[in-house]
Amino acid sequence: MMRCPEFRYHAAKTVEEAASVLADHGPKAMLLAGGTDVVPNLKRRQHRPEVLVSLRRIPGFAGISIGGDGAAVIGPGTTLADLALDGRVAAEWPGLSRAVGSIASPLIRATATLGGNLCLDTRCNYYNQNYEWRQSIRFCMKAPAPHGSALTEDAGGSVCWVAPASPRCWAVSSTDGGPMLAALGATVELRSKARGKRDIAVADLYNDDGMLFLKKAPDEVVTRVRVPRAAGQKSAYWKLRRRGSFDFPVLSVAAAATFSKSGEVTDARVVLGAVASMPLVLAESASLVGKSLTDDVIAEFAGAASRHAKPMDNTDFQTAWRRKVTAEFLTGALRELRGDDPRTMGQLGRRVARGASCLG
Ligand SMILES: Cc1cc2nc3c(=O)[nH]c(=O)nc-3n(C[C@H](O)[C@H](O)[C@H](O)COP(=O)(O)OP(=O)(O)OC[C@H]3O[C@@H](n4cnc5c(N)ncnc54)[C@H](O)[C@@H]3O)c2cc1C
Ligand code: SF4
């Protein structure tokens, strides 16, 4: 059995208290929400915090409300289950419901939170392994040998096993919520002791770097997620994974668009997930504006946009195949936006529609 290393548990009762502990302890403190990512990482010794600051006892940290402007204001402590099952969210932002409803398993979704999902660690086949496995091939730069381990003379920490000549880490952004919230134009509120409050678009929350993948500073707490409502907006989320029951994405397409009464796109944002260290907001989305989503328009868009998918060989499936199916996933998501029922789009569409978006 893998055990967690020793740590001090601090159950914050307010956001200010959580931010204060982060400020006081710097990199030695870490936030804990549902723990569905943090705890396995602790057991594998990828993190060794001295203090774990739990957010679960903060009153009002969870909950979904719809404001007078129609926007959803979601507490970061809201569980993925509550979010996925919320009828108001499903009606207004169906892509978000599907994205969070596709995460992990029902049991995990009952504990996992939206805030934790947005800040989810990046993933790599050489990183998501236990301590001994990583030690046996020499620790990579994302998770060097912990201080005080038996490997002090050769702690690793300078090489990337995926791209040994690379100075950076290519671990993959694997959040399902991030790409969809970016496509929907959502923002998060961040709070720190030193700098107070600031808002940042989810689309701007990430860096394309497997180690420094968040633009959120380590002392900042995600305190609110706001999803704007746009009249006539449609959204869709298509996710590729091996097992439809609970796997992480190895490719996802999050798409949101608004339409004029005559059916032309008035605004669009399409985001690729799980093909880089950050969700990729596709610049080609702007080319859809003013057009109807005809088969030709969709095919041209999918062909151009799929070139951004350059997955590395550090998650599931062959990279060449993942690149190849990107256009298919983009096509499916855009067809769904224009009103096609995914269940009429062959086996893949039927699987996406029932949330089991795997091809395996
Ligand atoms: C078997 C399995 C399958 C999974 N499948 C998927 C999947 O398909 N898709 C997917 O996206 N995820 C998946 N996950 C990962 C994880 O369960 C989810 O991403 C979950 O939403 C993480 O939320 P949490 O509350 O458990 O986060 P935690 O584990 O508590 O925290 C995750 C990270 O977020 C930080 N954090 C948490 N809350 C805040 C906050 N308010 N402010 C700032 N930082 C914060 C923590 O410090 C930590 O760095 C899976 C996990 C498992 C074990
Ligand atoms: S991409 Fe390279 S540095 Fe990053 S986790 Fe994988 S092997 Fe380690």
Protein model, in words:
The chain has 360 residues and is of the alpha+beta class. Among the domains are: 1-59, Uridine Diphospho-n-acetylenolpyruvylglucosamine Reductase, domain 2; 234-353, Enolase-like, domain 1. The protein contains twelve helices and twelve strands. The chain has helices at 15-25, 38-43, 80-84, 87-92, 94-101, 106-109, 114-118, 131-137, 177-183, 295-305, 319-337, 346-353; strands at 8-11, 29-32, 51-54, 64-66, 72-74, 187-192, 196-201, 221-227, 233-240, 251-259, 265-273, 280-281. A five-stranded antiparallel beta sheet has the order 4-5-8-6-7. A four-stranded antiparallel beta sheet has the order 9-10-11-12, with helices on both faces. Strand 2 (29-32), helix 2 and strand 3 form a beta-alpha-beta unit. The longest helix is centred in the C-terminal third of the chain and has 19 residues, at 319-337. It is globular. The two termini are 30 Å apart.
Average predicted local confidence, pLDDT: 93
What is the terminal-to-terminal distance? 30 Å
Strand percentage, roughly? Answer: 15-25%
* CATH class wording of the domain at 234-353: Alpha Beta
Helix count, per DSSP?
Answer: 12
| Helix and strand composition category | alpha+beta
Bound compounds, each kind once, are: flavin-adenine dinucleotide, iron/sulfur cluster
Which CATH architecture of the domain at 234-353 is right? 2-Layer Sandwich
Low-confidence stretches: none
Q: Report the sheet with the most strands, covering strand number, pairing sense and barrel closure.
A: 5 strands, antiparallel
The fourth-level CATH homologous superfamily of the domain at 234-353 is CO dehydrogenase flavoprotein, C-terminal domain
Care to count the β-strands? 12
Gyration radius (Cα, Å) is 20 Å
**Global outline:** globular
Q: What is the CATH topology descriptor of the domain at 234-353?
A: Enolase-like, domain 1
The strands making up the biggest β-sheet line up spatially as: 4-5-8-6-7
Residue share in helix: 25-40%
Instruction: Give the topology string: H per helix, E per strand.
Output: EHEHEEEHHHHHHHEEEEEEEHHH
